Amino acid sequence: MKLKRWIVISSALILLLTGCSDKEQSKEAIKEEPNVEDPKQENPTKEPVEKLYPFSFPLTGVGSDIAVEDRAVAVMINNHPSARPQSGIHKADMVFELLAEGNVTRFLAIFQSEKPEKVGPVRSARDYFIQLAKGYKSLYIAHGYSPEAKQMLESGYIDDLNGMQYDGTLFKRASFRKAPHNSYITFENILKGAEKNKFSMKGQPNAYQFYEKKELDALQGNPAKSIMVSYFSSDLFNVIFDYDEVLGKYKRFSNGELTIDYDTKERVLLDNIMVLEMEHRFIDSYGRREINLTSGGNGYLLQRGKRKEITWKNVDGQIVPFENGTEAKLVPGRTWINVIPKDQGLQKMVSITE
């Protein structure tokens, strides 16, 4: 009897243990099997959502959370070799590079979306630079002027601050450079000067057309990894733009040297390069020029390592690229525009490496 009772008890224990083991295995199986219907489970292939901004900056197309109302500031910047590297141009929305006398180029740097702490060296005004600044509704900053430029400024053609009136106050001379390559102004002093003269700092320039992010991968054009603009026989003013595929931007070089900011050492990185033909003519024996900013003409537009042939027009004072009769879109970011004499032409002054 005792043996039978032991056998019954043992059998019961075996069944009980087996049942528990099956339940545990069942629980483990349920625990390990992912619930494909669970909406909380992360999808590793999900694309990041691009933030949509309610506003954008008119000259860069970069988004902004707040309304964009600031007036542009256009600064004449020295490009003599003794003035390099310059300060502040790495934050300019747009830079125009045009010839002054002596086959020396000079910059008009237009700031609206960002303001560097300091800009310079500041150089003297020319009438066609003033006209460009006016087209972008800018406060114009220069130190000195040609006779034609002086007449325009004194007539009230544009709101301006000039180092001839504010040398040593709003404009400061740097000790590490010699005149006329050592005049600088801070954005703090630009705002002080605007307030002193009761210049409004509201009123943004007209906006360009920009690509949406989803359109950028489909950009068309001939390959253009590098472009050189040669200003006559002097290598000192040769400009090279090299496309960096990792950054997706162009780097700029003057006479073989990388263009950087003097103070921060940051590189000037560009998203759009334009080279435009414009009519030039000499107006005096000193070699001063008149440049026709209104006639329109031919040019190149480089973006993302590709080149397009375009035309340009003056639209309400701004220089605007066109492709097949329609305004050409820009890649969101910074733009550099080199202007060359039409009688020399793109074929003679520009070389492109594919």
Automatic annotation (TrEMBL):
Record-annotated DUF3048 domain positions: 59-199, 237-337
Q: Name one Pfam family in it.
A: DUF3048_C
| Database matches in InterPro entries | DUF3048_C, DUF3048_N, YerB-like_sf
Q: Where is this region: Disordered?
A: 27-47
* Signal peptide per UniProt: none
Question: Per UniProt, which keywords does this protein have?
Answer: Lipoprotein
Q: Which SUPFAM superfamilies match?
A: YerB-like
The organism sits in which domain of life?
A: Bacteria
| Name of this chain's protein | Lipoprotein YerB
Q: What species is given as this protein's source?
A: Pseudoneobacillus rhizosphaerae
